[in-house]
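Entry for the shared binder. Reason: the reviewer on the internal report wants the predicted structure included alongside the sequence.
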Amino acid sequence: SAALCSTTMHNDSQAMNIYCAGIVFNTAILHHQDSIKTGKSVSLDRAEELYQNSLQLLVGLPNSNDTVALIAVAASNNLAQIKMDKGLVMQAGKTLRFLMYLLRSSQRKVGRIF
């Protein structure tokens, strides 16, 4: 999904990246829910990859945009949960620190997704 969404028109690339990040994020949720219902690790792995892809699509965009901030916060939160579920405590901690950065900077309406 992320590869399909990365081919954007120059003038609308910021908006297109936001829309694509939303689509990829929602797809990640579907896989995440499937992994919770069925216990399939392949679904959890796919959800993790898609959450990361949704964040990647937001790189460089201002998190003062409410939609950017919402997708980034939700994807980071869910990604941290997956990492904790997998026992990847250090990676989960790094993701949670990023989540805290997002929350602080979105309250001040400054910063960019990096």
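Summary line for the report: DSSP finds five helices and no strands in the chain.
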